[in-house]
Amino acid sequence: MCPRSSIRRTTDPDGEAEAMGLVFVPTPLGNLRDITLRALDTLRDASLIVAEDSRVARRLLGALDLPSKEIWTYHEHNARGTTAAILERAAQAVVAVVTDAGTPGISDPGSALVAAAREAGIAVEVLPGPAAFVCAAVLSGFDLRRFVFAGFPPRSAAARRTAFRASLGETTVWYESPHRVRASLADLETVAPGQRVFAVRELTKRFEQQSFGTPADIIAALPDPVRGEFVFVVEGAPGAAPAAAEIDANAVDDAIDRLAHEGLSTSAIAKQLAEAGCGERRHLYARVTERRRSPA
């Protein structure tokens, strides 16, 4: 028996059943044959498609031979201003949510849209489908009885090193953009030169590239220039992650100084370092404040 959908249905004045709610639709990472039958049905029947990039969504509809749809963009820069309008549509009809590739809600503001829908009593459904971090984790061959998906590393070198150092105790999956991947892997090499790493570029696409070895090995295998999104998995080594006190002594002050030099506010620095695993945000805020008053 097929599971029942959580999408609500009402009856219009003519007695026809009408569906409504948000449906998060995973889309292929590259190979179009990875689309699911349920994803095709939802994209075909949705009243509105909410996409990270409307151009990418329109190309996908065309490639899948699906009819043209009304498409709204939804990303970190406009999420606050468009959420209410999206939920208003979802209260009346099915709204499909997609990202450029993979499962929406991962490394994009989709999770905030789900939370807002729950708050408003709007039904939400997530379809199973492609997710790059899951594929990369399985391909690594590392022990996955417990692992962490950490998203994108921080942008500054000091914060990246802090994040990598804090994550060494368990297998961790990271995303990275092509123009920052060399710098990120170089920072990982500085922190853990002997750690085993699996990396995959252009997952499921024609020129997919898989690499395995130390951070230096992965760097050496990169093409020049690097193209395509990048996923790398760092094998965990129990006991490898230093204690919080050691992290603070070695890296946090340096990270604060670098981020302050980049012009970030105290609050922004505390937030970024907290996300990098350097401690609680309120404690970091106090530390940044003290550091600004008495720089080393």
Question: Any chance you could write out the topology, listing elements then pairs?
Answer:
Elements: E1 8-11, E2 17-24, H1 37-45, E3 48-51, H2 54-63, E4 71-73, H3 79-90, E5 94-98, H4 110-120, E6 124-126, H5 132-140, E7 148-151, H6 157-167, E8 172-176, H7 181-191, E9 197-201, E10 209-213, H8 215-221, E11 230-234, H9 244-261, H10 266-275, H11 281-293
Parallel strand pairs: 2-5, 2-6, 3-4, 3-5, 7-8
Antiparallel strand pairs: 1-2, 8-11, 9-10, 9-11
Describe the structure.
- The protein is α/β, with parallel strands linked by helices and 296 residues long.
- It folds into three domains: 8-126, Cobalt-precorrin-4 Transmethylase, domain 1 (3-Layer(aba) Sandwich); 132-234, Tetrapyrrole methylase, C-terminal domain (Methyltransferase, Cobalt-precorrin-4 Transmethylase, Domain 2); 244-293.
- It has helices at residues 37-45, 54-63, 79-90, 110-120, 132-140, 157-167, 181-191, 215-221, 244-261, 266-275, 281-293, and strands at 8-11, 17-24, 48-51, 71-73, 94-98, 124-126, 148-151, 172-176, 197-201, 209-213, 230-234.
- The strands form two sheets. Strands 1, 2, 3, 4, 5 and 6 form a six-stranded mixed β-sheet that branches. It has a five-stranded mixed β-sheet with strand order 7-8-11-9-10, sandwiched between helices.
- Strand 3 (48-51), helix 2 (54-63) and strand 4 form a beta-alpha-beta unit.
- It is globular.
